[in-house]
């Protein structure tokens, strides 16, 4: 008989000690990857060029072809190259060290990490959108201008506003747009005002934006139930206040019940209301900010309208404007004249009192196509369902966790699209950070931590509408377990994450001795 | 006694017309690992309660106020290369700046060590 | 609705668990008069994937794609061939659907990529350090002016007439509100205004902003400008809107620029009708703490393994609030990734070769176009973009060329409306995608239109 010549006898595991260290440092599918500067070199490339066509060669031969003058590069740049297979492997390996929505639940409060539909990617890549130049004659870009116009129409209608500025590149850039419009409107009536009021629970971008636009910033306190203190706001309003910046729903996850009253007070004082629209996902299709007296609000297309976050941008932050601010919108903008779309790029054109240009060209077209595809897919009915499901999911999380984690505003009524917890009640020495890192081991991206600042050790959970009940139930189970460990003082939590590609990273070292670019080891040593 | 404390957690050690300023041990423990300190340069005029220096941990940046008015005579250059001194020796080698007092009377409203201790315990 | 996983039974069960009778209970804090009771009637209802795709396909067909026609537009956005692997890699969900790397243990992919990107940008620009990217070149340019103001503690910026007019406009918009004074001028065909700028630098000058190559494609040594700036305690800011040029040209850092910013679109990122693009921002190491934007830095983890984190974040808005160096919150991460992948595929030799091909092709095109009666090339020196002076206003010529399915450059009349002689200028960019047939078609059509 044949006695198993290859010797292959499958066995189950026998060894039950600790996992051995590996020679490579890899752990099976968890692969370490060096830097391109360590694996590439100046002679490798992943691109084959066509030689110059003969006619160009003849034209461009030798001296008369060189029009660089004395500025031709003499020194090497120091750029490593890789062949195509090496390149694919390098970035594929890096990608696998990232958490992402495509992998799992990503409940980052205030960031609206919802599913990014792939139809949107396909559409953004159509040659007719992806491969057109911003300064091409408008007769050759009518379809693209139509996209901008259609999206603008949706945004204006969904928010009940007068106009929309499409060019801002991101949420904070949109805030700047809104504040500059306010400033331009005030200056146009000869009313110089110096102060912008910002609630203390605001995103950091709000005060930074106001300061960037030349305003002094003053804080408005919150009520114990987590909303803007109307009395304090009212007391501070006066002829020096240009505007207030309010986030609604706010960063505590609550709807500002008094929003209309706030707007009326602000308007009566001759000032304007800026609304941070970061949390528009909670109310799209159910509330129009225009009905609440808002004068300007940015919309993060990368939040409410699902354009991908891309590891930190690009975003897109169109700003809807009230009738009072619309004339001051930035350049350029799209207008339809006699059935033809035109791009208004010049100051002084038509009736506009535009405050000017904020950016080269006309905004994040690649995000416009994606956002409009998302909007058309949902329609007016689907978008309303989005807000309802987002709010339902958040309340489900809030009520499923409030017995194990301190929820400072749980008694204030239902939350909107996000649920806020604090570190109150954790064991001595245990913090929000430990819970976050424990969640990483459980396979989740942590919630937003230490924001808003009005709550100690804040944990802000935003599930979004694109998560199923089963996903939420599983997360709630994991959160209850991790919170339980933090309350019981389980020391193993202090050293979490245990199973991520890296353990806790030394941020103090990184900040004390910043290493921001790679240097050849001998140079790095010499620099010490 | 020639060391005083403020409610903003600065200490000031007075020697005749000049004084040394830093932040308290309690302050550094609340801030965590200090990664950067910006101290005023000599001849900078500072006024009581006004911004005088900046201290940064990884996740926070705090202004350090002048406990009294005066003219800075020296910033602590050692903090530039070794900001951790603020953690390891906040009330000694981790001092921020020295100044010449313009109004010694301003010291009157400040706390002594025992009063500051009681103040911190009450926080 | 295909993107919403909750079923009706789920919703019912969840409402019961919350203790709400219906969804309206969760919106009780909205004042009654502001509640919408049904879907907004004037907007259409949801559509299938097929219907949405059909709508966009029809709109896309109305546009003239650069790849399908002889194409010569530049002026801040350039058409280069992008290798297929770039778009494949940036569509990996782990990059595409990740957030800003605030939890570094599970974001090493994005962080390491940013560290590599920062190094590539710093080296390309000849600077010590670079940040993790900005919105685009124009906003990076204003941020640089603001940064120079913080460093020099001065408020007067001298802006070269060769700076892209949109960039100038962005700076003007912002300067109105920050109290900075900008000295600006229109370009002229005969010469740059470098000599004038050098003369103007004084003890109140915060910075000089120079584009390289400039809006008309001209290239100039900025060593003397840098020396004069430094003598006066001012900073030299160089702006690069076509980074491929630096494969053939000396970097601004080599010539003494203190801050170098740019538009990274031309490497890895498509034209996309103007955005999203990627702002590049690099400077001397001593200015790091005054830089805007995110920075990625190297560190170690608790086991001593190398890793990367966002660092020096106390400069930023989420900590510093109104005292931040900028209000910027995002960068342009995915575009930075595309830039970095394309640059890795090119490598040193690839970028040098690409630049060589661009320059040789542009030289050939310039020679051919200059043969047209009445047309002259104003540039003595250029990289892949030059300016033609036509015997007539260029803007209608560009439209007439488009009618003949040729995208023949950017007219200066569009960039500088109503400015006399400038209206005869046509900025022509010639990259590696241009073929001899394209040049011939362009030259022939241009000659016909002008005659």
Describe this structure in words.
The complex is a heterotrimer of chains A (528), B (123) and C (451). Chain A is of the alpha/beta class and 528 residues long. Chain A is built from 16 helices and twelve strands. Chain A has helices spanning 36-39, 54-59, 62-65, 84-95, 118-124, 127-130, 142-159, 171-188, 205-212, 230-236, 259-268, 365-401, 432-441, 469-488, 507-512, 521-527; strands at 163-165, 195-199, 216-220, 241-247, 272-276, 296-298, 319-321, 333-337, 340-344, 419-421, 448-449, 459-461. In chain A, strands 1-7-6-5-4-2-3 form a seven-stranded mixed beta sheet, sandwiched between helices. In chain A, strands 10-12-11 form a three-stranded antiparallel beta sheet. In chain A, helix 11 links the parallel strand 4 (241-247) and strand 5. Chain B is an alpha+beta fold and 123 residues long. Chain B has four helices and nine strands. In chain B, the strands form two sheets. Chain B has a six-stranded antiparallel beta sheet with strand order 1-2-3-9-8-5. Chain B starts with a strand and ends with a helix. Chain C has 451 residues and is α/β, with parallel strands linked by helices. Chain C has helices spanning 8-18, 49-61, 84-90, 93-96, 108-125, 137-152, 165-178, 194-200, 223-232, 317-320, 333-370, 394-403, 412-415, 436-450; strands at 129-130, 156-159, 181-183, 205-211, 235-240, 259-263, 279-283, 296-300, 306-310, 376-377, 385-389, 410-411, 425-429. In chain C, a hairpin with a 7-residue loop joins strand 10 and strand 11 (385-389). Chain C is globular. Chain C starts with 7 loop residues before the first helix and ends with a helix. Chains A and C meet through helix 2, helix 4, helix 5, helix 6 and helix 7 of A and helix 1, helix 2, helix 3, helix 4 and helix 5 of C.
